[in-house]
Design goal:
The structure is a homodimer. The first copy, chain A, is of the alpha/beta class. Chain A is built from 20 helices and ten strands. Chain A is 51% helix and 12% strand. In chain A, the strands form two sheets. A five-stranded parallel beta sheet of chain A has the order 2-3-1-4-5, with helices on both faces. A five-stranded parallel beta sheet of chain A has the order 7-8-6-9-10, with helices on both faces. Chain A is elongated. The two termini of chain A are 41 Å apart. At the A-B interface, strand 5 and helix 10 of A face strand 5 and helix 10 of B.
Chain lengths: 492, 492
């Protein structure tokens, strides 16, 4: 679409100034409406080097109260640290909260096109990235984000003139970087790359807007026109129901919770022997994982009092504390609630070579959030697919994903609840909420069955830990972790 | 996505039957809601030969009242007659009305994949078709259609067994066609083709749903699940505001109406001489057009009493009546209003080698419908782009598109209105509505200026006919038609 672009008719200076002012006022007027509607607005600027992305952002935000926006300038290349996370990570962690603007001086386009141009991406890898980006943008817009993407366009001649002008003066020369020079030299090739990227990512949910960026004021007005129109449209669509896509992932068969044999047991003796052996093995594996830079994600879900905490401890005791983190997940903080529900997990990922153990996870979306009405039916129905996409992204990055469901029966829970209540030093572990949840056992069981069935992918399968006997469950968990880490180490 | 598809877990016979009945009831319950909401629902079935598309449709519609649906079985190949229209034509003319279901036994997928497989489509042509399809599906959903696409999937082995079974009996053998045999022989290659097509057209606005079609009842239930979910979602989103995409078409500069010089004149003598010469040329050209099978679309818009009718007559007098049609466009009939606003134009296209002259056109969307509030602002804002896409589709098909704006000034209109009112045999030509429209002259003028500017593409540019002097306007129109037809004939 970039090659087909023809500059729109520019109004006369006076008319332009008048319209620009009116558009600025309109945008300013939207601040409170966005806030009230809880609409998160991402405004992404991409385009040619020296096209004036920073300047345009400065102009556009002039009348927006600083409480309502944040400007993020993405570095052209990920840092060493960022390279240890998935490609999308450094972008997604910057998404704005509901009711606020996030302005971005370049986003994931820049990195993809430049890597492709350098020959660092094969066709296959390019397609994978494009797919990741389209999926991420859809997941954002499906969850209520407005995503406005602007490409600031200038001609080769104009770019050359700007570079020359900047180089003239000592105090502006630093603003010309090697990429700009390279881009200008190979303008037509970069044009091909940008044009292709724009076509590949120009979806209805987050379309591209190309801006004639030769004149700064005129560029500002073009952006304001589209931005105001986009906001207006989004504000009209409150509580939008999004079509549920088919969950096309290779799903492994699952058992229903009611079919699980909970009589499995270990003697204290068997337990001790196995525990020691497995922990020794895990210790060695943790080292190999670290050296091979394999990221590991261990996710725990299960009934209250099922024994998650004790189970996790038996694993962490074998690990080097510098190489793992346990993330206990409670209800989201306000700043987390104000963002995409997966954001608080994206920002808690391990870097490569490290292990993160989640004590409760993103599956809250299809359990507690579903049953307590914290999200709409449309939201949780969509979530199975979104979660599979999320885990697939982590798998493609190279992560080992181990998901545990810690299972007990209703009687065992009651016994443990009662014991907690009757033991002063355990009383903190039992709350009214636990009792309330227990009343909804059947509803939870149905939701868990559905969850296990719809998210049991071959790249991130569920493992059931039969935990009426906690000893049995602990050894089983350790065995699975050892097996999976061994497999991953041997394969790389 | 087809290759990644894994069969969903099939419920036990009894549970399946129970859920199927409940889903059927739910679907039946949607009939009146769809009617009330004015929601048009397209349910498209594609898939392998012998996968049971017809049978599945029969099962799904069982409880729907015949007043609420229509089943259309698309022929695998276009007829000779249909080949004389654009590729999309035979499909788009079948779209359902608002408040009704349209069930389709195959749609445009089948034709594309088979043509590609046969080697009849180059990569470039394939991409063009995919682009046409994605654009058409977006235009439908943007204008309120729910589009549900199902792919009925069976294995090679299953297909072979079905073919064999059908061939056994004389009265079913005819149902196996050559395509089915070919598909089974080259199953893996067709799988590649279908998989690619599904990926290329799997957009959020109209996603694909793959159905495990081995068992008929189970296939029915899978379809019902998705269909009910899709309808439920669509019904929640009344009066959806759709993001306005950028109008990225090569636009030529335009004059504002106020800048047009209306003093141009011809003497009666000049007029007669030129008229005769041009009509002679046109007569010859009409013949060449016919033999070269070039479709021609001439579109007239202009003020009331601007002289459109007389102008058109001067053209048609030179044409062979077997080769042209004049389509006078008034307000849409109820069955037209109930469909996509371009539908009544899609169904009035000329076949190749023929000429259709539209006396008023699809531009009503951004003039009368805009100003009289017959559509929402979101609708007409989107329409410039949709209209350019529509005309581009016609251009790509090979059509010559000539668009006339017949311009007069306000005084001339008043004089002509008065003359009509005072001349008994012309009184039928003037109505109260004409006077009412005249009162809104300034609003119309602004809308026309915007329309000319936003739809003046290089493949379908506007021509202004200065018609204060009708003689001048007629000759100018003829000259343009002759020039454009000549250009087209010489080029092919």
């Amino acid at each position: 679409m970039l090659k087909a672009f023809v500059k729109p008719a520019k109004p006369e200076a006076e008319a332009l100034e008048q319209e620009r002012k009116a558009a600025q006022e309109k945008l300013a007027g939207f601040q409170m409406k966005i806030k009230e509607a809880g609409l998160p607005v991402m405004v992404i600027f991409e385009g040619w080097g020296t096209a004036g992305k920073g300047g345009t952002i400065r102009r556009v935000i002039r009348n927006i109260d600083p409480r309502f926006f944040k400007v993020t300038a993405m570095a052209a290349k990920p840092s060493e640290e960022e390279l240890r996370y998935p490609f999308l990570h450094r972008y997604l962690k910057e998404i704005p909260e509901a009711g606020k603007f996030g302005f971005f001086d370049t986003f994931w386009m820049q990195e993809v096109v430049r890597e492709k141009k350098k020959g660092a991406l094969t066709e296959e890898a390019y397609h994978k990235w494009i797919n990741s980006i389209n999926t991420a943008e859809r997941s954002l817009t499906d969850n209520g984000y407005l995503v406005m993407k602007f490409f600031l366009h200038i001609s080769r001649k104009e770019q050359a003139a700007r570079i020359k002008e900047l180089q003239k003066h000592k105090d502006t020369a630093w603003r010309v970087n090697e990429e700009d020079l390279e881009e200008n030299k190979l303008y037509d090739k970069y044009l091909d790359g940008y044009d292709r990227y724009l076509d590949d990512t120009n979806r209805s949910i987050a379309p591209w807007y190309i801006i004639d960026a030769k004149d700064a004021k005129w560029a500002e007005l073009q952006v304001l026109r589209f931005l105001n129109q986009g906001i207006e449209t989004a504000l009209q669509n409150k509580a939008l129901a999004v079509p549920i896509r088919q969950n096309v992932f290779r799903l492994l068969p699952t058992k229903k919770l009611s079919e699980i044999d909970l009589n499995k047991k270990l003697t204290e003796e068997e337990y001790k022997k196995e525990l020691e052996e497995l922990q020794d093995e895990l210790r060695v594996l943790h080292n190999r994982i670290y050296r091979k830079r394999i990221p590991v994600i261990i996710a725990y879900e299960g009934w209250d009092a099922a024994g998650k905490g004790g189970n996790i401890k038996r694993i962490t005791r074998a690990l080097d504390p510098r190489g793992y983190v346990v993330e206990p997940i409670a209800s989201p903080e306000p700043h987390e609630k104000a963002r995409h529900y997966l954001w608080r997990f994206w920002t808690r990922l391990p870097k490569d070579g490290h292990i993160t153990i989640f004590d409760r996870t993103w599956y809250g979306r299809v359990m507690v959030e579903r049953l307590e009405g914290f999200c709409t039916e449309n939201d949780w129905q969509r979530a199975y697919n979104e979660i599979n996409e999320f885990e697939q992204e982590l798998h493609n990055w190279g992560a080992v994903i181990i998901k545990f469901w810690v299972q007990i029966d209703k009687d065992t829970q009651l016994a443990r609840f009662t014991e907690r209540q009757d033991t002063p030093e355990k009383q903190w572990k039992i709350t009214d909420e636990d009792w309330r949840n227990r009343e909804k056992w059947d509803e939870y069981e149905a939701a868990v069955d559905e969850m296990l069935q719809k998210t049991n992918t071959d790249f991130a399968p569920w493992h059931i830990l039969e935990s009426n006997d906690k000893l049995y469950a602990r050894i089983k968990a350790l065995r699975i972790v050892v097996k999976e880490l061994k497999k991953a180490c041997d394969a790389r």
